[in-house]
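Hey, resending since the last one bounced:
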Amino acid sequence: MAGHFILRSISNSDLTIATSKGATWSALQHGSIGWNTASRAVLSKALAGQPIGNRDGLPPHRYLESKASVGATLEKYLRSAGWAGQLIRPASAGLGLRELSPKAKAAWDRGDHTGALVEQFLHGTATVEVYYISGTEMS
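The structure tokens again:
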């Protein structure tokens, strides 16, 4: 699985608020890989836009998923989420981020990260891949 966006780190308080508004937090992915020199190097290369071949060597991460079916409360939160401006979409071969909807891509291309998140949400689902909580490696 891959997200539409990557957020390197989310704070505990932002995660609590997002889930209280209806976003879901996935089970841990790549837990068996762990955080080690190799997985940290794969993540660094991916985030820098360098090719990684495939996702197999990425370290543990989770997904914050926002579905439009949840409704207006979640949409309102996403429109004001301070972390949305920190979203990235590295062009790393092998990272395989999900394709954005046309409106989300248009917002992204004009530098409107929050708008891209909201437009992807309104399209059906916006998935954000997260590697750290409050700067601490995901476990």
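The radius of gyration is 14 Å.

Sorry for the duplicate.
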